[in-house]
Design brief:
The complex is a heterotrimer.
Chain A lengths: L1 H22 L19 E6 L5 H11 L3 E6 L8 H11 L5 E5 L3 H6 L10 H5 L6 H8 L9 E13 H6 L8 H13 L12 H10 L5 E3 L4 E3 L4 H15 L11 H8 L5 E5 L2 H8 L7 E4 L13 E9 L6 H13 L1 H11 L26 H10 L11 H16 L5 H18 L4 E2 L1
Parallel strand pairs in A: 1-2, 1-3, 6-10
Antiparallel strand pairs in A: 3-9, 4-7, 4-8, 4-9, 5-6
Chain B lengths: L1 H30 L3 H4 L12 H10 L4 H33 L5 H10 L5 H14 L6 H8 L3 H14 L2 H9 L4 H12 L1 H17 L2 H6 L8 H10 L7 H30 L7
Chain C lengths: L4 H30 L1 E4 L8 E4 L3 H8 L1 H33 L6 H9 L6 H12 L7 H6 L8 H26 L3 H9 L4 H12 L1 H16 L3 H6 L12 H9 L4 H31 L1
Antiparallel strand pairs in C: 1-2
Classes of the chains: A alpha/beta, B mainly alpha, C mainly alpha.
Chain lengths: ~450, ~280, ~290
C-alpha cells in the first residue's frame, strides 16, 4: 500500500517531466517578429534586474502609469546566478516579463529561444536612431526584422592614468600601444606597474580585441564561426604576453580588496577600462583623489581613432511575457526618457546607450575626483568610435570560463595567453556541438 | 609531576582555541571599522569604533531588508528543523521498532538520499515546482527543507538503543495506542537524540543557499545567506556593500551561537547518539 | 514488533511522501534528463529534446576536467579528512582525559565555527589569506596561499576549521557514553592515560569515527560553497574545480542534459566510495 503510493508520486513526477519537455519544443517560426498588440485592462509586469536602486527608478514609472505597474525582482548579478535562473525559468515557462541581460549574454538567451522579438513593436523600431549605432547592433545581431532587447547602457573604453605620477616621472601619456609598452618600462623603473592584467576579466580582453579588430564570433544564419585566434585577437594576446613576460604588469585577481589596494597605494598607474570604471576607482582607491585623469585608449596605428567596449546591457522582454507591448513600452521609457536615464545614472552610474544620454547634465560636468576634468567627454567620443559589427557567441559563460582558466595559468607562468585562446577555441566549438548548435570548423 | 602533566594538554587546548576563535575575533574587529580603516589599520585590533554606525547602516539599507532576511532565515530554519525533526523521528522510530515488509529496502533508499549532491536536486526541484507555479514562494524553499534523511538514520539508531521493546509491549497491554505511546513515552526517551537531529537539521538548512538561490527572485523572501551572497556579488558595483557584508556576516552568526549556548545541555550528550550501536 | 497498519502509515507516510516528492522525483527527473539531448536547426533554430541514450554519459566519461576535478577532491579527501578527524579525536581525548580545566568553554569555543555558514566562512578566510589584508602577514608574505599550488589546502583549512569542532563533539559524546566500569578495570590493570586512550577509548568510539568519516567523504565529494566563493579571489580556482562546481557551471551554460548526467555520475561515485569505506571498516571490525 505504502510502496504503491510512493510509486504513484514518482510516476506522476516523471510524467510532469515529460510534459515540460514537450512544452519546450512547441512554438512558431523563430525568425518571425513577435506579436506586439496592447493588452486590455490593467497590466502588472515583473522585471528582474540587479541594478542597485532600481526600485526608485521604477517608482517614477509606476506613479505615472497606473495601468501598467512594474514589479521589481532582484538577485545576484547575471553570472552570479540570475542568468542561470533565467535559463531555468525559460525551460519551465515562468520567466518574468522583463529581464536585465548584458550584451554578451543576449545570444545565449536567443539560442534558448527565450527572448521576444520586438521588431513587431513599431515604437521600438522607431527608436533605433536614438541609440548609438553599435549598441543597436548588439540587440539586433545585425539582422533585419529582429530586435531582442532595448539597449540600456554602454561601456566605451578609455585610458585612466595617474596624472601626478606620469608628470613627476616625465613619462608622456601614451597614445599608441607601442608608447604604452615603452611607458611600462619607465613605470617599472620608477617602482610601479603600468597596470594590472586582469586574468579573470575576459570581458576586458574582449574589449581590447574589439578595438584591435578581433571578431570572436560570426553567424551566417546556417552556422556559427568561432574565431578566437583571428589577427586582431592574436595581436592583443601577444602584446600582453610580452608585458607579462617582462613582469611589467601585476596580476592581482580583479575586484578584490587587494586589487583596490594596488590602485589605492599607487602600485598600478593606469587602467584601460570602461566608463563605469570611473566610479570603481573613486570607491576602490579613495586616497588617490585628484590624481587621476582620462585619455583616449592607446591606438594600434598612430592617428587612428578606435575604441573598444567593455560591458553594457539591454532590457529584454522574454518570449513568455503575455504583455510584450507594455513591456516594450516600459523598456523604452526606462532606457530613453531623460528622467529615467538621469535616475539610472545617479542611482547606479549607468552610462546611457542613447545619443542624447551622453548630454545628461551629470555627464557633461567636470568630475572633482579627476581634478575637475570633464572625463565623460572622452567616453562620449569613444562611444562613437566603437565598431558596430562585434558579435557575441551563444555560449559566452563557458567561453569566458575556459579562457579565464587559461589566462590564470598564463599569468602564473604556465602556458601563454595564446595557448589559452587556442584551448578556448577548441572547447567553445565542442561546447556548441554538445548543444547541437551548428558550427563551422 | 601532576602539574607538569597538565601543561602540555592545556597548551594544546590553548592553541586550538586560538585557531578556532581568532578568525571570529577578526570578524568582530573588521565589522567595527569604517571602510577606509578596514584596509589600512591593524586587522586584529580596533580602530575608530564604527560598529554602531555599521549596524545602523545595515539595518537601514534598502528599507531594512537585512532584518527581513534574518527573520526569514529564522522561520525557514526554525520551522523546517522543528517539523523536519518530528517527521524524521516518527519515520526512524517506525523503522526501528516495527517489523514489516520492505523495511530494510525503505531504510536503504532513504539513507542513500544522504549521498545525492545538492546540485542534482535543486534544478529538477525548480522545474517540478514550476509545474505548480509555486516557485518564488515561501513553500518552494520550506517544503524541500523539511526532508532530512540523515535525521531518519539517527532516529532509527537511537530508537533502537533507547526505547526497549518491553516498554512498548507494556504500553500496548495498558491499552495505549501506538501513536499515543510514541508521543507520551518513546519521544521522551528519544529526546536527546531529537535535539541532536534538530541541531543538525537547523545548521543544514541555515547553510543551504543553493536552493533559495535557484527558487527565489523576490528579495523579500531571501534567507540571510542568499542575501549576503547577493550583496557580495554586487561589491564590484557598490563597494559600500563590503562593510555591510562583513557586519551582516557577524550579525548572522549570532542567533546560531545563542542557540548553541541555550541548547548546550542537550547537544553535548546527544551528539554521540548516532554512533552508539 | 508487529504494528497495526494505521499507526505505521501515520509514522512513515508524512516523511515518505515528502521524501518521494523532494528526493525521489527530482532524482528520477535528473536521470531522465541525462538520457536526452537537444537538437536544433540553424544558428538560432528551435531546440528540441530528443532521446539520446547514453550520449551524455559518453561525454561525461571523456570529459577530462570533470575527472581531474574528481581526482582533486579525492586528493583533498585523502589528506584533509584524516587530518581533520585526527585533530577532532585528539581534542576529544584530551577533553575526556581529565587533564584539562574549563571543558565547557573549550567545547563551545571549538564548536562555534560550525555556526558559520560555508559561504560566510569562505568569505572570511578569503580576507585572512589575502596578502595585504591578512593579520598573518608573516605567513602570507612567505607563501601565496591563494596560488595554484596552495589554494586547495587553503580551502582544506577552511573546511577543517568549520568541521573539527562538530566532529570532535560527536566523538566526545560517545566517549562520555563509555561506562565508568570499563575504566575501573583498566585502572586495576595499571594502564596509564595514553594506554587507556589507545587500547580502550579509541576502539570503543570507532563507530563514531566511522560515521564521521563517511560524512566527511560525502561532504568532500560535494564541495561547492568554498570553491565557488574562492573563485572570486583566487586565480587558481577554475569553473570546473570540484565536481559539484562542474555541475553548476554546466547547468548555467545552460546544458541541462549534460549537467544531469554529471550529477548522476557524481551521486553514484559518492555511493560507491561511501559503501566501499563502510564495507572495509566492517570487515576490519569483524576480525
Amino acid at each position: 500500500m505504502r510502496m504503491r503510493s510512493l510509486s504513484v508520486v514518482l510516476a506522476s513526477a516523471l510524467a510532469l517531466g515529460a510534459c515540460s519537455s514537450t512544452d519546450s519544443s512547441e512554438g512558431g517560426d523563430p525568425a518571425a517578429a513577435g506579436n506586439c498588440a496592447p493588452s486590455t485592462g490593467n497590466v502588472t509586469l515583473t522585471y528582474t534586474t540587479w541594478i542597485p536602486g532600481i526600485d526608485k527608478v521604477v517608482k517614477l514609472w509606476n506613479d505615472k502609469n497606473p495601468n501598467i505597474q512594474v514589479k521589481v525582482q532582484t538577485g545576484p548579478n547575471g553570472n552570479g546566478g540570475t542568468y542561470a535562473n533565467f535559463f531555468n525559468q525559460i525551460k519551465a515557462g515562468n520567466t518574468p516579463d522583463l529581464g536585465h541581460i548584458e550584451y554578451d549574454a543576449l545570444p545565449s538567451f536567443r539560442v534558448q529561444d527565450g527572448l521576444a522579438n520586438l521588431a513587431g513593436c513599431g515604437e521600438v523600431t522607431a527608436a533605433k536612431d536614438q541609440f548609438v549605432d553599435w549598441t543597436w547592433g548588439q540587440v539586433t545581431f545585425g539582422e533585419q526584422d529582429s530586435v531582442y532587447g532595448v539597449p540600456q547602457d554602454a561601456g566605451p573604453m578609455a585610458l585612466f592614468y595617474r596624472k601626478d605620477l606620469f608628470e613627476k616621472n616625465n613619462i608622456p601619456v601614451p597614445t599608441t600601444w607601442a608608447e604604452y609598452a615603452a611607458a611600462a618600462e619607465k613605470v617599472k623603473a620608477a617602482g610601479g606597474y603600468i597596470t594590472n592584467f586582469s586574468q579573470s576579466d575576459i570581458n576586458q580582453f574582449a574589449g581590447l580585441s574589439w578595438q584591435a579588430g578581433g571578431r570572436w564570433f560570426a553567424n551566417d544564419g546556417a552556422k556559427w564561426t568561432v574565431n578566437l585566434q583571428d589577427e586582431g585577437t592574436t595581436k592583443v594576446a601577444d602584446y600582453w604576453q610580452g608585458l607579462i613576460d617582462k613582469k611589467l604588469v601585476s596580476s592581482v585577481p580583479p575586484w578584490t580588496t587587494e586589487w583596490d589596494n594596488a590602485y589605492n597605494k599607487g602600485n598600478a598607474w593606469t587602467w584601460v577600462s570602461a566608463v563605469w570604471g570611473a566610479n570603481s576607482i573613486i570607491s576602490g582607491a579613495p586616497d588617490t583623489k585628484g590624481k587621476w585623469a582620462v585619455a583616449p585608449m592607446p591606438q594600434w596605428t598612430a592617428g587612428d581613432a578606435k575604441a573598444g567596449n567593455w560591458g553594457g546591457s539591454a532590457t529584454a522582454v522574454f518570449k513568455n511575457s503575455k504583455h510584450p507591448y507594455e513591456a516594450a513600452k516600459f523598456a523604452l521609457w526606462l532606457n530613453t526618457s531623460e528622467e529615467a536615464l538621469t535616475a539610472l545614472n545617479s542611482e547606479a552610474q549607468l552610462y546611457p546607450a542613447t545619443k542624447a544620454g551622453a548630454k545628461l547634465p551629470a555627464l557633461t560636468e567636470g568630475v572633482e575626483f579627476y581634478g575637475g576634468q570633464k572625463i565623460y567627454d572622452v567616453f562620449a567620443t569613444a562611444s562613437t568610435q566603437v565598431a558596430a559589427d562585434f558579435v557575441w557567441g551563444p555560449t559566452m559563460t563557458s567561453t569566458y570560463a575556459t579562457a579565464s582558466d587559461g589566462f590564470k595559468s598564463a599569468v602564473s607562468g604556465s602556458g601563454t595567453l595564446l595557448d589559452a585562446l587556442k584551448t578556448t577555441q577548441t572547447k567553445t566549438v565542442e561546447n556548441l556541438k554538445s548543444q547541437s548548435i551548428p558550427v563551422a570548423e | 609531576m601532576k602539574n607538569l602533566n597538565r601543561v602540555g594538554p592545556m597548551l594544546v587546548m590553548g592553541a586550538a582555541t586560538l585557531y578556532f576563535l581568532v578568525p571570529i575575533w577578526w570578524l568582530v574587529v573588521a565589522a567595527s571599522k569604517t571602510r577606509s580603516q578596514f584596509s589600512s589599520t591593524d586587522p586584529l585590533w580596533f580602530a575608530d569604533f564604527a560598529l554602531i554606525d555599521n549596524l545602523k547602516e545595515l539595518l537601514a539599507y534598502r528599507d531594512g531588508v537585512f532584518l527581513r532576511w534574518m527573520l526569514n532565515s529564522v522561520v525557514y530554519t526554525g520551522g523546517a528543523a522543528l517539523l523536519g525533526t518530528l517527521l524524521a523521528a516518527m519515520c526512524g522510530y517506525a523503522l526501528a521498532k516495527y517489523r514489516f515488509w520492505g523495511r530494510e529496502a525503505i531504510f536503504n533508499v532513504i539513507l542513500s538520499g544522504v549521498l545525492v549532491p545538492a546540485t542534482a536536486l535543486a534544478l529538477p526541484l525548480f522545474l517540478i515546482f514550476s509545474q505548480f507555479e509555486a516557485t518564488n514562494t515561501f513553500w518552494s524553499v520550506f517544503l524541500p527543507s523539511l526532508v532530512n534523511p540523515f535525521g531518519v538514520y539517527l532516529a532509527r539508531i537511537y530508537a533502537t538503543a533507547s526505547v526497549p521493546d518491553e516498554l512498548l509491549e507494556a504500553a500496548r497491554l495498558d491499552g495505549s495506542g501506538e501513536i499515543r505511546t510514541f508521543f507520551t513515552v518513546s519521544s521522551k526517551l528519544m529526546f536527546p537524540a531529537l535535539v541532536t537531529i534538530f541541531l543538525f537539521h537547523f545548521v543544514a538548512v541555515w547553510n543551504n543557499f543553493l536552493l533559495p538561490l535557484i527558487m527565489l527572485g523576490e528579495e523579500k523572501l531571501f534567507p540571510v545567506t542568499l542575501g549576503l551572497y547577493t550583496w557580495n556579488t554586487q561589491v564590484n558595483q557598490i563597494p559600500e556593500l563590503r562593510m555591510l557584508v562583513l557586519t551582516g556576516a557577524l550579525v548572522s552568526i549570532v542567533p546560531l551561537v545563542i542557540a548553541f549556548l541555550l541548547l548546550q545541555r542537550f547537544w553535548r550528550n546527544g551528539l554521540g547518539s548516532g554512533a552508539i550501536k | 514488533m508487529k504494528a497495526n497498519k494505521k499507526a505505521l502509515l501515520f509514522f512513515i507516510l508524512p516523511f515518505g511522501l515528502l521524501f518521494a516528492a523532494f528526493y525521489l522525483a527530482p532524482i528520477g527527473y535528473a536521470i531522465k534528463q541525462s538520457l536526452y539531448q537537444v537538437e536544433r536547426k540553424g544558428t538560432f533554430g528551435k531546440a528540441q529534446e530528443v532521446f539520446g541514450g547514453l550520449a551524455q554519459y559518453q561525454r561525461v566519461f571523456t570529459d577530462g576536467p570533470f575527472w581531474e576535478s574528481i581526482g582533486r577532491v579525492l586528493l583533498f579527501g585523502v589528506v584533509q579528512v584524516p587530518v581533520m578527524l585526527g585533530l577532532a579525536l585528539a581534542l576529544a581525548l584530551l577533553l575526556d582525559s581529565g587533564l584539562v580545566k574549563g571543558r565547557r568553554f573549550f567545547r563551545l569555543a571549538f564548536f562555534v565555527p560550525y555556526a558559520i555558514p560555508g559561504v560566510v566562512a569562505a568569505i572570511m578566510w578569503g580576507f585572512l589569506y589575502s596578502p595585504n589584508l591578512s593579520p598573518f602577514t608573516a605567513v602570507t608574505s612567505a607563501a601565496d596561499l591563494l596560488s595554484a599550488d596552495l589554494v586547495l589546502w587553503s580551502m582544506a583549512n577552511v573546511v577543517t576549521w568549520v568541521y573539527v569542532g562538530y566532529n570532535m563533539l560527536i566523538i566526545y559524546s560517545s566517549l562520555l557514553a563509555i561506562p565508568q566500569e570499563v575504566y575501573e578495570a583498566a585502572k586495576i590493570d595499571g594502564a596509564g592515560a595514553l594506554r587507556t586512550a589507545w587500547s580502550i577509548k579509541i576502539p570503543l568510539v570507532m563507530p563514531a569515527i566511522v560515521l564521521t568519516t563517511v560524512f566527511s567523504i560525502i561532504g568532500t565529494l560535494q564541495l561547492l560553497a568554498e570553491p565557488a566563493v574562492f573563485r572570486t579571489f583566487s586565480s587558481a580556482v577554475s569553473s570546473t574545480y570540484t565536481p559539484n562546481l562542474t555541475v553548476y557551471s554546466t547547468s548555467s551554460i545552460p546544458n541541462f542534459n549534460l549537467a544531469a548526467a554529471f550529477s548522476v555520475v557524481l551521486a553514484m561515485a559518492t555511493c560507491l566510495l561511501s559503501f566501499a569505506f563502510l564495507k572495509l571498516t566492517q570487515r576490519g571490525g569483524d576480525k
